[in-house]
Structures are given as structure tokens and as C-alpha cells.
Amino acid sequence: MLNKERYDRQIKLQGFGIEAQHKLASAKILVIGAGGLGCPVLQYLTAAGVGNIGIVDDDRVSLSNLHRQILYNSDDVGKLKTKAAFERLNAMNPEVKFSMISERINSQNAVTIVSEYDVVLDCTDNFATRYLLDDVCRILEKTLIFGAIYQYEGQVAVFNVRNKEGFTTHYRNLFPEPPNPGEVPDCNEAGVLGVLPGVVGTLQATEAIKLIAGIGEALINKLMTIDILTYQSAVFEIPSLNLTDESIPYSIEEFEKMNYQLHCGIEFTGIKNISPSEFKETAKLPDTVVIDVREMEEQPKLDVSYVPIPLSQLKENVSQIQSQNIILVCQSGKRSLSGAKILQEILSSEYSISHLEGGINHLIKETHE
């Protein structure tokens, strides 16, 4: 039974009314990522009365999250984000049904997860997952609402919805090729003003509500950009291009065989991605050298023996590397992968080259769990 008093101010809106509220109550929305973008998205969709919300995230709350992920507080540090999010959101609106999926979405589970929902909100922070969500939503014909942030700038778009002329666009129409590893730093390396994901996530939630309620003009086949330092914003038409690349999956079978880490250059043949636990063991082995490719002033410092060589100076300092087994590390894993690729091109096949997947951030997180 719909509690009209809870949504009174929304129902009274001209052009909205009780019919739109019922549409929200019947909607099924999937939010991928309960971080900076996901927090405001979840709060506003919950408050608005979306009936069914799925939350996918395998991460835990860390202290460095709290300046922008306002769904959590200091007591939540170390908790699964899905658990902490449910506690707050359920208290906010017990009329909403939540499904918590505490795992990382991948090509093996995405079809099962996404097929249960009408609209998917991409609140992630990496290109591999963005391309994965774009492909699975295209194949399953699900609406995808995209959001991204970088320092002081944000982007929002709506994909896979046909406009009045009958055509639709996808994330691959906007970005046909993934950027090279390390080319676009994430907020772990570049930083982000805490309010920015709040602004962009709120816009994503707005687009979801507009589409479901059937009000206003959504950003269908359009990209909105905003700079919160200057408040300059723009809306661009996204060209509708035929996707003919043979490397793109066009069926569920092809999708489930897709390696998005490899597709986005996060994984290279001959370079091993090692976990924090593997790193702790491997770093102790004889004839092994750990190379920190961060800048000299970056913190925190590693508590194992290592050689500091910033990525920008790696090519000129390859002669410093005397060991056969090489492990590269950085803050989030992007620069270390780029460094591993550089060494792979210079050194012979006798060298074993690996990098710490997820970087020092991942190492610290696992250490405190």
C-alpha cells in the first residue's frame, strides 16, 4: 500500500501526480557501485519511493571514503558497503525492497543480475566495468544511466533508450576505444572534491526518476558535462554509430566469454596481476625486487624493501634492476601496470614481471580486514 503522506510533496507536483508515484513504486532499479556516485543515487531513489532497488558492490567502507560517500559514517569503517548502505536506507524508507549483492559484477554474473531490473545506474569508477555494463545492457535491452567524475568535472548520459526518431546510443558510441592504462587517473590518484559525486549522482537519480515517471526531457542520446569550479555546463548530442567491431560481444554467449580486463588494457599477456596476499609472500622471495613507481613524496610508504623509481623515469633507470623477479606497485595499480608494460617491452623474456593489482590502496584495505 502506497503511503501518500510520505510522498505528498512529490505527488502534488504539476505533471507528476499519483500515477507517476505508482510507476516509481513498481520500478526495479539496479545501482552498480555504492561509492561516491552511488551514495546520493541510493539516498534520493530511496526517498523518492522507487519500489525495488538492487545494490552491487564488493567493497568495504574506508576512512578515505567518508569525505564524499555521505551514506556512511566513522562507525562503518571496515563494514561491507552493501551492509552499511542497507542499514541507513532501510531506516530512511522501509517501504522499499532492497537486494544486496556483495560481489563484483563480471561477465559471468552480470546477465543474471541485470536481467532482473528495468534501469541500471553505472556508479562505478573503472573502464572495464563501464564497458561491461554497456555491453550487457545493450544485449539485454536495458536502460543505462552513466555518471563519471574527475577532480572538479562530471559527466552524465542516458544510453540504450530510443528517442523520438527511433535510434539509440551506447557508451561505446561516446568512447569507442578504452583509454590506455594510466591515461585517465581515478580519484585515488587525482583526487576529487567531495561534493562533486553528490552533484553528479543526484543528476543520475534525477534522470532515473524522469524516465520512470515519464516527465521532462531526459538526457537520451546526450552527454551533459559540468564543471563545479566555474558552473560551466553543456549538453552534447552523441552520434549514433553502427557498432561493427568484431571484438564487441553481440550475444550473451559472446559476452560471457569476454575478458574486460584484457579489453581495457588492465591485463596483459605475460604480466601477472598479484593480490595483496601474494604480494606479501612474493616480496620476500630471493632475487625479487619491488619497484614503487609513485612520485617520491607520495604516502604511505611500503613496509617492505623496495626501490623507488617514478614511472616517468622508469625507462632511463632500467639498469638499476638487477633481479629476475620484478614486482611493480603504485597507489591504485594503474601506474604499476603501465610500468610493467614498459619493462616487458625492454627486458628479455627471462624476467618475471608482475604488479600489485589494486595498488597500495588494496593492500591497506586487505590488511585491515
TrEMBL record:
Residues 284-368 form the Rhodanese domain. Its EC number is 2.7.7.80. CDD domains: RHOD, ThiF_MoeB_HesA_family. The keyword Isomerase does not apply. Keywords: ATP-binding, Nucleotide-binding, Nucleotidyltransferase, Transferase. GO terms for molecular function: ATP binding; molybdopterin-synthase adenylyltransferase activity; sulfotransferase activity; thiosulfate-cyanide sulfurtransferase activity; ubiquitin-like modifier activating enzyme activity. It comes from the Bacteria. It catalyses: [molybdopterin-synthase sulfur-carrier protein]-C-terminal Gly-Gly + ATP + H(+) = [molybdopterin-synthase sulfur-carrier protein]-C-terminal Gly-Gly-AMP + diphosphate. Belongs to the HesA/MoeB/ThiF family. Catalyzes the adenylation by ATP of the carboxyl group of the C-terminal glycine of sulfur carrier protein MoaD. This is Molybdopterin-synthase adenylyltransferase. The lineage of its organism: Bacteria, Pseudomonadati, Bacteroidota, Flavobacteriia, Flavobacteriales.
